[in-house]
Amino acid sequence: MSEMLSRLRTELIAAGQFFHSRGWVPATSSNFSARLGDAEILITSSGQHKGKLDDGGFLRADLQGNALDEGKRPSAETGLHTVMYRRDPAIGCVLHTHSVNATVLSMRLDQVVCDGYEVQKAFPAVDTHDSHLLIPVFPNSQDIPALAAVVDAYFDANPHTVGYLIRGHGLYTWGATVADALRHIEALEFLFECVYRQMLLDR
Amino acid sequence: MSEMLSRLRTELIAAGQFFHSRGWVPATSSNFSARLGDAEILITSSGQHKGKLDDGGFLRADLQGNALDEGKRPSAETGLHTVMYRRDPAIGCVLHTHSVNATVLSMRLDQVVCDGYEVQKAFPAVDTHDSHLLIPVFPNSQDIPALAAVVDAYFDANPHTVGYLIRGHGLYTWGATVADALRHIEALEFLFECVYRQMLLDR
Amino acid sequence: MSEMLSRLRTELIAAGQFFHSRGWVPATSSNFSARLGDAEILITSSGQHKGKLDDGGFLRADLQGNALDEGKRPSAETGLHTVMYRRDPAIGCVLHTHSVNATVLSMRLDQVVCDGYEVQKAFPAVDTHDSHLLIPVFPNSQDIPALAAVVDAYFDANPHTVGYLIRGHGLYTWGATVADALRHIEALEFLFECVYRQMLLDR
Amino acid sequence: MSEMLSRLRTELIAAGQFFHSRGWVPATSSNFSARLGDAEILITSSGQHKGKLDDGGFLRADLQGNALDEGKRPSAETGLHTVMYRRDPAIGCVLHTHSVNATVLSMRLDQVVCDGYEVQKAFPAVDTHDSHLLIPVFPNSQDIPALAAVVDAYFDANPHTVGYLIRGHGLYTWGATVADALRHIEALEFLFECVYRQMLLDR
What's the mean per-residue pLDDT of chain D? Predict the structure, then answer.
């Protein structure tokens, strides 16, 4: 277990440094997690700068979001991570980032629709640009259990969703591994910048 | 004292390198300070590039802005730092940066208003996105004592303000520590980019 | 041969790191190749992140796109590389990147036309800004042989073309050496950003 | 002399790396020079990538633009450097860069006018934002002696000009030292981005 925890922590620290270089984790926004086992995850602790994480910036939690390491408080948004791990045992990593484009689009749209972009193939089971990618936008809330219930219900009805936005608050996406979730972040941020630039040209 | 000075200098040098990587301290613009005690601050000296500071780029000053190190001249805008330290003993760091967005917004608006952004929670005593953040814009002036008096009067009337813009000249913000002030810079620059992009979409 | 392969691999790895720093190779998009001889190329293997390539991320292929290294699968788009090497023995490197600007322009234009830009001189046989550079846009397809045939036919009619876009999918360009192809990427991406900004100002 | 040459070369190499990180020296555009004495300059040689210069990428030239080092060819635009060194013995460095903003603005405006920006104080003899900065735009030409004559005549009439643009071709600025010229590049590029963003908001 310890070796796995150490490897995942290293991968999440590197992910945070990359996101910081792009401006996607401003201030103490964002949070990252990875699965340690059937009933346990590793997650960033509350109040850290996600671009400057060190080994101390993480703790273990169960799938109900209870801390398993004494004296540490998990991110306030832990419930939005655990809902995904409970839904799907194949999910090994959940990443939440907070870019300008994700924020601006989420404040102007009810969903982000992507058609005809080759990069849509970055997602599992998509093998052509000639597909239709829909990223829903949920209203923001400080009541995380309520927000997690909204997400859970949406996924019951739309199981193939690859990520979602919270209004004014950023992006959640996931994958089997940290590398997979990271690829989804890169693909979605790329698409958000494309959609923003298209909107500017369309006015 | 010497150890504290050394640590704060190191933190301000690193802050400057980060700002430079983002393009927020062009030419010899911007200046940074941190509190050394009840009546003393550390501040960048005049004419330095703030992205390439070394230990020699700082001097000590009292809260009236007088140099306490012989042969060095504090930044011309020292009075805008000292007014904050005099107002509030809890302030440990004042940062002034000079980004394109801060400059452009300050030339077109009398205040920057932010509503519904999750990142507003980066500021003390804000615990929901459902708050209202107002960043005032003051006219620029080469008469720093006069400008400091305008700032001082504004804060008497609006004590919860977290930062302000000077027209065509950039951003001032602060915090209990260098890390707090840095978080405020990151949050405000993120918000300025969001507001600019919203303005483009709104035309 | 081995020394040449090693040198070209190193150059392509560095090219990928540079493109990643600019955001031009998101997720596992893009692919790179270089000529090893009359009938052999080095090409990135399928599914790699092109900003984090290592020596294992490449394989040798013939000019029909067949793998020459056992157990490795070349990029799905190998046929768009080999068509160029077959057409012109002077081509030593083919680079495909995937930037936001290339994507957005390719979804709105049938060709990108550049006039009066000094940087047009980055291309062979262009010695004045007072030239006319035309980058065609081809419809995207998951049928690479069909797409390669479209490209081949276009070049029969337009032999002096220096690069092309695939709709929603990015840029292909080439050169005698990796350095030459890299210079063409830089020049074309520069021009795409100029054209995008001009389009915004023209609305 | 040798120590001075070595120091200036190191400073120009570092300047090129910084410009490259900002995207201001795409492909083999741009060129840099510094004064070695009353009648001699150091200048980048033709065809180099200005973000990856090494010691071999420079040569000495006289103030008429003749190479003083055998076997090396100075930049095609050497005449635009030497005209400045001949005009003013206080000039120690001339930098030419090639950014997207400089290019786009130069293709839409006959002059770039800046008013009310604090960063205008980056230029000699400007001590207030309440000044008026005018950057002229000259038509591009491959006839460098003719272009140098246009520049020379303009400066006879407008001796306080701090930089100029060539249409579709980028920026020339200078200073007493490499650091001074670099500060002017940073200030002008900052202003160009501000002016571009203002133009977008003004449409």
Answer: 96
Considering only CB atoms, which chain A residues are within 8 Å of B200? 200
Asked if D57 has any chain C CB less than 8 Å from its own CB, the reply is no
Mean pLDDT score, B142-161: 96
Q: Where are the alpha helices (DSSP H) in chain B?
A: 2-22, 78-87, 100-106, 144-157, 178-202
B1 pLDDT above the threshold of 80:
no
Domain boundaries, chain A: 2-201
CA angle A34–A37–A43, rounded 5-degree value: 30
Q: Which residues of B touch D163 (CB under 8 A)?
A: none
| pLDDT given for residue C203 in this prediction | 87
For the cut 90, the answer to whether the pLDDT of residue D38 exceeds it is yes
pLDDT at residue C132 greater than cutoff 70? yes
The model carries a pTM of 0.97
Q: Which of A23, A101, A168 sits opposite B117 (nearest CB)?
A: A168
- The residues that bridge with A74 in the sheet, in sequence order, are A45
Q: How far D119 CA lies from chain B's nearest CA (Å)?
A: 7
Alpha-carbon separation of residue B127 from A147, B187, C130 (angstroms): 16, 14, 59
Taking the alpha carbons at both ends of chain A, their separation in whole angstroms is 53
Query: Was A96 annotated as part of a binding site?
Result: yes
The predicted pLDDT at position D1 comes to 58
Cβ-defined contact of B108 to D201 (cutoff 8 Å): yes
Range 85-104 of C in CB contact (< 8 A) with A: 98, 100-101, 103-104
Residue D172 pLDDT: 98
> Could you report the per-residue pLDDT of D161-198, keeping only the tens digit for each?
999 999 999 999 999 999 999 999 999 999 999 999 99
Contact flag A100-B201 (C-beta cutoff 8 Å): no
In whole angstroms, how large is the CA radius of gyration of chain A? 16
Considering only residues C116 and D128, tell me which one the structure prediction assigns the higher pLDDT: C116
Q: Which residue in chain C has the smallest CA separation from A202?
A: C203
Model confidence at A110, pLDDT cuts 50, 70, 90, reads very high
3-state SS, one letter per residue, for chain D: CHHHHHHHHHHHHHHHHHHHHHCCCCCCCCEEEEEEECCEEEEEECCCCCCCCCHHHEEEEECCCCECCCCCCECCCHHHHHHHHHHCCCCCEEEEECCHHHHHHHCCCCEEEEECCHHHHHCCCCCCCCCEEEEEEECCCCCHHHHHHHHHHHHHHCCCCCEEEECCCEEEEEECCHHHHHHHHHHHHHHHHHHHHHHHHHC
Q: How many CB pairs under 8 A join A and B?
A: 64
Report residue A75: phi and psi, to 5°. -50, 145
Distance between first and last Cα of chain D: 53
Please write the tens of the pLDDT for every residue from C45-64: 998 999 999 999 999 999 99
Q: What is the pLDDT of residues B156-179, one digit of tens each?
A: 999 999 999 999 999 999 999 999
Length of chain D: 203
Instruction: State which CATH number among 3.40.50.10150, 3.40.225.10, 3.40.640.10, 1.20.1270.220 fits the domain covering B2-201.
Output: 3.40.225.10
